Fold this sequence. Notes:
By secondary structure, the chain is an alpha+beta fold. The protein has 2 domains: 17-182, Beta-Lactamase (2-Layer Sandwich); 224-298. The protein is built from 6 helices and 5 strands, in the order H-H-H-E-E-H-E-E-E-H-H. The protein has helices at residues 2-14, 18-74, 77-90, 118-125, 166-217, 233-318, and strands at residues 94-101, 106-111, 131-134, 141-150, 154-164. The longest helix has 86 residues, at 233-318. The radius of gyration is 58 Å and the shape is rod-shaped.
Amino acid sequence: xxxxxxxxxxxxxxxxxxxxxxxxxxxxxxxxxxxxxxxxxxxxxxxxxxxxxxxxxxxxxxxxxxxxxxxxxxxxxxxxxxxxxxxxxxxxxxxxxxxxxxxxxxxxxxxxxxxxxxxxxxxxxxxxxxxxxxxxxxxxxxxxxxxxxxxxxxxxxxxxxxxxxxxxxxxxxxxxxxxxxxxxxxxxxxxxxxxxxxxxxxxxxxxxxxxxxxxxxxxxxxxxxxxxxxxxxxxxxxxxxxxxxxxxxxxxxxxxxxxxxxxxxxxxxxxxxxxxxxxxxxxxxxxxxxxxxxxxxxxxxxxxxxxxxxxxxxxxxxx
Length: 319
């Protein structure tokens, strides 16, 4: 079944113009290339944007952990609120910032923290180093946690920062839209340019085909020549066809001249034949006159012989 469909498709393809045969594959390949390139760029761009977001979050949570160590030890909640508020406002992708003391109590918070699982909370509060984990139940958010350390006392709390990837995804979609628009414009421009070039390339072939069709129908103007505007294969075809027309024109001229000579020779042969016929007729008439004269002479001789015989008989009887 597939082979039959392929054959039908190939048979239909044979009936389309050369311009379509050149433009359609180019457009398809160009479209696939732009789509693949766009997908690659968008994918890489999304990864780069997410990595950049993660680096920003890491730097910001370290800064908060560093600035929160003294207020956590002294219990200065106003200062903690100021620190987490500044961190929350520093980056639009930061959803919330929490400072948890060593007992697990939230001593400062900025932003609205969504609900998480107890296991996730325990794991993030127990971190001993910078940690990044995906938030449970929300694929568009991750959380970064860093321990708050104070001198020789070591860990005295944890800073937890929730970061949303919605902005990164919007940027990726915007980049995809821009790339798609640029790709579409490039595709249209490329197809237009390719169509113009294809038509310029195919036009001499169309003129050659039209000239050959005219020759086949017997209505060609042998004085018409194809313009040779390039030295490529199409220019060689046009030049070869012009050479063929030159040779054909000379051959036709020779045939016409030969036909004229044959006509003149035929006229001369016809005239000579007529003269020969007239001479033959004259000779026949002369022969007929001669025959008649001979018959008269024969009759006269016969009569004279009869008269002589009668005279001889009469002479013999008188004796």
